[in-house]
Predict the structure.
Amino acid sequence: MPRLSLYKPEKGPDYEFLDKQIYEMFSVGGTDMHLHKLLGTDLTDEQVAAGETNLTSTSIQDLLFLENRDRRYEKDVYTIRCAYNTADLDFDLTQFGLFLQNDTLFVTVHIRNTVKTINRKIIAGDVIELPAMRDEYALNDSNFALKRYYVVEDVNRPSQGYTQTWYPHLYRLKLKKISDSQEYKDILDLENEDGTTVGDTSTTYDTEVHINNAIVAEAELNSLLSGYDTAHFFTIQTDELGNVELIDTDSDGILDEMRKPVKSGYKGYLLGDGLPPNGTPFGIGIYFPTNAEDGDYFLRSDYYPNRLFRFTTDRWTVMEDNVRLTLSNTNTRDTQKTSFINNTNSDTIAGEVVEERQSLSQALRPKADE
């Protein structure tokens, strides 16, 4: 009589019977999950030069940082039965601050059913949508439920997935919520029923951008502009000799009033503010008025930077540009910081090409072998 043993070198009828019963548990008591299969990443220039044409899900795009940023996902979505335990998401107060606990989800799937469905095992980088966790009553303008997407971080075989035959039947997936980042662009660009994208409704990107823009706008209101403020200084019109120009206002031959200045009398770095001298009234718009009188000022807002003009008889003469802009990052180049302070131009000094930001003493210092 042969020796009795539940383990056999080959997967026999016992394994098949147990595997069917285990999958039946998922069919009856499990739930659906929608899997977006990772195809791979965009090919690098070196891969294209080497003649590679196919995406591979096991390659690493950036070997320095060990990242796969430009991920591509299959358009078809696979439905697989799974099971997971729900848990409350609580904040844990530690010595380092508030930390979100239990934000990792562990999902169990059937091995053979998974491989049969997607023609390979689930790997890190696959994105999973759990329809049972949709939020149908979210506080937004959408008329449909908010979807929940997770990315697979790790795959292993749990201890409860082994049967008496010593063969595994289950995979245990470690899931984390996806972020609004470059890796998941294919997922976030998927369209909803109303034409919006998943990224528009399932992430906080728009809200964070709105908050950031509001902070920048408030900072610009409370901070000084670039350059120097001369609007509060009084300008006096002088002649070529530097004397104050006087005019006769009542035609009695006596010079009894100073002539109004044509433009600001101050010169320097970033002084133009687009304002007439001494608080003179002016107009603003994208085209000149047709009923202008001699001496009128007008600020063209369609010029960048805005440009102040003065009307004299039959023409509009340029007075100054409004170069006193905000100090935010969007206008850094407009304030000449990039070209004036951080000068990256090169020059030839003592027959050697050097950068302008390099110290002249270092450029002119003789080398050791000279």
User: Anything to note?
Assistant: Residues 246-321 form one domain. Confidence is low (pLDDT under 50) at residues 358-370. The chain has three domains: 13-203, 246-321, 336-364.
